[in-house]
Structures are given as C-alpha cells and as structure tokens.
Design a protein that fits this description.
Layout lengths: L15 H13 L6 E4 L6 H10 L8 E5 L8 H6 L16 H4 L3 E6 L9 H10 L1 E2 L8 E2 L2 E7 L3 H7 L4 H7 L2 E4 L10 H16 L3 E2 L1 H9 L5 H15 L3 E2 L1 H4 L3 H8 L40 H15 L4 H8 L3 H10 L4
Parallel strand pairs: 1-6, 1-7, 2-3, 3-6, 8-9
Antiparallel strand pairs: 4-5
Helix pairs in contact: 5-7, 8-10, 9-12, 13-14, 14-15
Amino acid sequence: MKQKVDAMGAIVGVAPALREAVQAALRIAPSRVPVVVSGESGTGKELFARLLHDFGPTPAGPFVAVNCGTLPRELAESELFGHERGAFTGAGARKRGWFEEADGGTLVLDEVGELPLELQPKLLRVLETGRLRRVGGNGEVTVAVRVVALTLRDLPCEVERGTFRVDLFHRLAGFELMLPPLRQRRGDIPLLVTACLEQLADELGPRTVEPDALAALVAHDWPGNVRQLKNVLRRAALTCPQRIGIEALALPRTAYSVACAEPPAVERPQLADGEGPPLAASAVMPPAISGDCLMLGDLTFDQIERSVYRWALGRNGGSRRRAARALGLARSTFCDKVKRHGLT
C-alpha cells in the first residue's frame, strides 16, 4: 500500500503525529469498522476519510460526504434515509437518501456532532442493523455502508452535556483518529508551502517566497490550520506576480516580529547532553534560504529540511530540546536529523 499524495489535495507532511495517524488509518482501513476522525477545522479530516475509503474493502464503491451541520432540521431524516412519494408536502416522488446513495461504499458524516438529538436513535438503529426505513415508508431497505464520522467537537463532552447519545458515540467510535493541529507540526509547513505553490502554479504561474515570508509562515500559529495556510498563500499569490513577501501574507504583527527579529543575545546556558551551543544571529537563516528570495520548487527535500532545522535551532538559542518541541518532533528524531545534516 502507498500513501496517495497530490499537491493540494492529499496528506502532506512528515511530522511523527501526522505519520502515526496515517499509519493507524492504513491499519484499520481494510476493516469495515466505523471511525471517528477528530481535529480542529482545517486539519485534513476529509483527507483521512478519503484515505480510509481508498484503502478500505470497497474502494470502487461510492464515496458520499454529507455535512450534518448544513442539513435543514426538518429535512434531515429525509436527506439521510430518503422518503416515499407523498410522505410530506413537496414529496412528489420517491427519493433515495444518503445512506442508499453510499450503499456498497463509504458515507462520511461531516460535523456529526450537529445532528439533531431526535434523529440520533434512528441513525443508531441503521448502524446496528444495516436496515433503514424511508420517511413515509412501511418496508425496510438493507444497506451496507462504512460510516466515517468527522468532528471538531469533543464528542465525549457532548455526551456529558446530553447533546449527543452515548450509545451512538460508542457505535460510531469503533476506532478514533485524532489529527494534530498545524502549530504542533511546524516542520511540515515548508513542505505544505511547496505543495501549495506547485498547485497554484498551474493556475497563476510560478511564485517565489522570500526568506522572511517563509520564516513568518513557520512561526505563525495557524488557528485555521492547513486550510488557512492555503488561503493565505492563494491570496498572496494573487497580489504578487512573482515574489511573495511578508507584507503580502497579511499575518498578524506578532508573526512578523517572531520571523524578523534577530534572536536576543544570550549567555551560553548549561546544556543537557546532546545539546549543541547557541547559534549566532547570522546563522538563523541558513545558506539554502538566504539571499534575495527562495523558490521552494527548486530546492530538494533535504535542503528544505536542513533549512527548517537550522532555523529552529537559531530561534531557540541552539537548544535542541526546545527546537524539537517547536517543530512538533521527538527530541531523538530531531537530534538524528541535525547530525545527518551536519548542524552539530
């Protein structure tokens, strides 16, 4: 099996937390167990749902996604389970619901925490029995559907509040995947920037990223995660015909100050075993991204990786422990990479 990668439409990154989530998804994908994928908005929950389908038992079957938060409350049951002709005013013909449309494949329930409480027992019954009843119908329809539920809510907390049924939660959560936010895997940001710019090049032509702009992108906390990063790059690319500078990113000034300010002068600290000495301010931006501008598409993966690790060391006074934490990496992994890139 291989992980499917496509510039802006697939999972991009090498951070341990992301890699572990991918590996877990690949392990459970061949089963039919329902899965809950949790994470902040923009972390790529939909991509994991597609991965579960593509590597699941029915990859040739339908892949149907429905946003439960946008379903009209009065029509939610009809949308999910269908209806018979004359079931209610305006029901002029029989309609197949999303479960029937997904029969033999995967049904993705996005924002499952938004489902009306009164509809949850009916969803639970379909999950338990594999049979549904259309609105206004007498007979039952059998369906074989693998359900993947996506949520940015804490469903156990919703259970405690009484807004989500505990039995439905346990039925949906045959397996749980928690996706890390982008601020916990900053080392992936240059890779994501590369992927985004490659995709945008097909539409807008090639773009370059100036070093201070890349530093600001890595330093920003990204409350909207990967989706926000893509939107920021697209907006900047539309306003910059060639180079994307820091001003075009329109990030908060805090990001500017972190990216542009030189590290403060520090006395040489007492370092733990394996920690190198602090780097000079001139070493914050390595040769691979010093100079006039950076064209990420022209750099190798090793060059990008080396640049990020050296930047992180410079921003954290040479402390490998703090630099590893800032990039969302295990300290041992970070130290191995630093040694391999000759940054000791």
